[in-house]
Amino acid sequence: MSYRISLLDKIPVAQDDTPAEALKHTLHLAQQAETWGYHRFWIAEHHNTTRLASPSPELLIAWIIGQTNRIRVGSGGVMLQHYSPYKVAENFNLLANLAPGRIDLGVGKAPGGLPLSTKALQRGVQDKASFADQLAQLDNWLSLPAAQDDEETLRATPVPARSADRFLLGASLESATLAANLNWNFVYAAHLNGDKALMREVLSSWRSRSSLDTIVAVQVIVAADAEKADQLASLVEIWSVELENSQRVSVASEVQAHAFARQAGSAIKKIERREPSLLKGTAETVHAGLAALSKEFGIDEFIIDTPIADPTARLQSLRLLAGVQPAISHLDFAAQHDAW
């Protein structure tokens, strides 16, 4: 296999489960992911939702690194628009001291929630900088060396011997350029935007600007047979919403789409359910699909998002993915299937 595989977990709360139970399932998944040989385990950030229990990746990273030994653990990602870059740097410098060489700082541009939570998170914030300026400030705080014991010198203490590896998540030429200019890693968010023409354009631009790896996040569902995978995939919803005020967003249900419009104070101009961009099937089929994408787009690493709330089915999906190599070549797969 010519590519690495890592995981992104959103800590879904299954029907009849509590958030506490969902968190325990995620810890168990992280421990199993380490045993199964996954490269990274990332936690997403989402606010004000009963469906996901992950508003604070930093806290969960600290919890998970204390109960694993080798796997890299990180955020996928911190929604920087809500926070002080200095405080984010402090948090991840602290984590990098706790687990040297194992911490990833992934940063995203999205709000990670609907307008109600965004307003609450940003209440009292004045002179808000652009995202590019915030990212540059964060990079600076993470890059500064330790200083002498001088209260007049500002550092994001405790400064670690090795800082967290840095990743920008996005699906645009702007994000790829920003990451390259700062010498950050870039993760193309194909799990949110599966437009292959756009992905080709963005990744081509990325490779022309950076020598770092090509990393792509994709949605994957693996089951013992194709019928079960189709059944699980049928539960995944993605709704595109365009408001009269020109705001556009993708959400996970029609209810969320209407809530977004109400909270944004604008009428819906257009709403439609999209087919999710995901790889599904048996482990052999999915591995062949990943191999085909890796070959076509020069992908070095996949970040796997498994959009299954049921903890048993989610664990089974990732166990099967970890244990099986492709039984058909990527050329045969490409001839028989569209990856998504």
Automatic annotation (TrEMBL):
Cellular component, GO annotation: cytosol
Enzyme Commission code(s) on record: 1.-.-.-, 1.14.-.-
Transmembrane is among the record's keywords: no
One protein family per Pfam: Bac_luciferase
UniProt xrefs under InterPro entries: Bact_Lucif_Oxidored (IPR050766), CmoO-like (IPR019949), Luciferase-like_dom (IPR011251), Luciferase-like_sf (IPR036661)
Keywords: Oxidoreductase
Residue stretches making up the Luciferase-like domain: 13-300
Keyword Oxidoreductase: yes
One annotated GO molecular function: oxidoreductase activity, acting on paired donors, with incorporation or reduction of molecular oxygen
Organism superkingdom: Bacteria
Family: To bacterial alkanal monooxygenase alpha and beta chains.
The protein's name: Bacterial luciferase family protein
Naturally occurring in which organism (per UniProt): Buttiauxella agrestis ATCC 33320
